[in-house]
Design brief:
By secondary structure, this protein is α/β, with parallel strands linked by helices. The chain contains twelve helices and 13 strands. Helices cover about 35% and strands about 20% of the residues. Strand 12 and strand 13 form a beta hairpin. The structure holds acetyl coenzyme *A (ACO).
């Protein structure tokens, strides 16, 4: 216990979950589809330029799923990699939580489809809808089940096929998004903490900043709704940008405060990858050094719920973080929703 870096810091769980078990992330994995869509190709679809996209967002390319490749397929690939790292068999999984705004279908849940594809017959399965914040919301839910001794092994996935809800005629949004999936296995591991704390927040007053008007009970699919392009996402970019920076800073500071640590103790900050300018602004406000920030938005664009899950996997697989290091995840998404988590890797 004394060798654990987190033992040096206050673990808020110890205060209010003193009867609970510790829970750690024993495996991570990610997957992106093979097809790469470059800025140069988007220049041919809408009135934009590589220079504008790069300078305003930091995005150079994104991955796009094939017509016959669905969110559950991306999720299953990422899950298999996380299971391999954790040495977990499908039969061991007690619960599957998939965070997504692009489920294969409104129902059944994408988690049920993943359960079938993995052959995880014992697992309960449901989805979480918190847009880009969904992976942190999923981690927190999973951890509660493990600490309460309800389940031993939980699979959390963030997976999106955003290309299916992007309006490829709208230059304001189509340059921003991509497809992909990331996953984590959470398990009880004695003397390892996993999530030291998770902050989650929401503000439904700002639901109009980023939404998809069609396809739900308010506006079911009709010939008119399709013609009015209501089955594509819509976003107020400038306002979303401002809200994102503020909410991510507030959430991250709250997570650090709860753990009674400052930013210098964090080995790697893994922010939601929506826009390089948002990442830099949040990093600056938190007082993080540029080399503490993990950035891969240039390769994938914004993959919503998959974003920090893919970034966390890449931070681990690239050797940026080692067992025992502290990681700060910080996210923001439609809802509005936001969150931050301090992880002892
Ligand atoms: N190519 C060229 N010009 C463009 C493009 C484009 N792709 N898109 C917009 N423009 C134009 C606009 O029309 C505008 O022109 P105008 O001045 O003649 O009206 C000009 O560029 C500037 O537009 P702004 O909106 O001021 O550009 P801004 O610097 O704010 O960047 C952006 C826009 C990239 C969308 C930015 O606001 C942003 O990143 N917002 C946050 C997005 C985000 O984080 N979303 C998270 C969602 S997470 C989830 O839950 C899915």
């Amino acid at each position: 216990m004394s060798s654990s870096p987190a033992a040096k810091f206050k673990n808020p769980r110890a205060r209010y979950n003193f009867q609970g078990r510790t829970c750690s992330i024993s495996g991570v994995g990610s997957y992106v589809p093979a097809r790469i869509l470059t800025n140069a190709e988007i220049e041919k679809k809408v009135d934009t330029s590589d220079e504008w996209i790069t300078s305003r967002t930091g995005i150079k390319e994104r991955h796009i799923a094939a017509d016959d490749e669905f969110t559950s397929d991306l999720a299953t690939h990422a899950a298999r990699k996380a299971m391999q790292m954790a040495s977990v068999t499908p039969e061991q999984i007690d619960l599957i939580i998939t965070a997504t705004i692009t489920p294969d279908m409104p129902f059944p849940s994408t988690s049920c489809l993943v359960q079938q594809k993995l052959g995880a017959r014992k697992a309960a399965a449901f989805d979480v809808e918190a847009a880009c914040s969904g992976f942190i919301f999923g981690l927190e839910i999973a951890q509660q089940f493990i600490m309460s001794r309800t389940y031993d092994t939980v699979l959390v996935i963030g997976a999106e096929k955003l290309s299916s809800i992007v309006d490829w005629e709208d230059r304001n949004t189509c340059v921003l998004f991509g497809d992909g999936a990331g996953a984590a296995i959470l398990q009880n591991r004695p003397n390892a903490h996993g999530l030291l704390t998770a902050v989650m927040g929401s503000d439904g007053e700002k639901s109009g900043l980023l939404f998809m008007p069609g396809g739900g009970s308010r506006c079911p699919a009709t010939a008119n709704s399709v013609q009015a392009r209501m089955h594509f996402l819509r976003m107020e970019g400038k306002e979303t940008f401002k809200s994102a920076v503020q909410a991510m800073q507030t959430a991250a500071e709250e997570a650090l405060r709860r753990c009674e640590i400052d930013i210098t103790k964090i080995k790697c900050v893994v922010p939601h990858q929506a826009n390089r300018r948002i990442i830099d602004a949040v990093g600056e406000r938190l007082g993080a050094r540029p080399d503490q920030l993990f950035v891969n938005v240039d390769k994938y664009g914004n993959t919503s719920a998959a974003s920090v899950a893919i970034a966390l996997d890449e931070a681990v697989s690239s050797g940026r973080v080692q067992r025992g290091d502290l990681i700060l995840l910080v996210v923001f998404g439609a809802g509005l929703t936001w969150g931050a988590a301090v992880i002892e890797w």
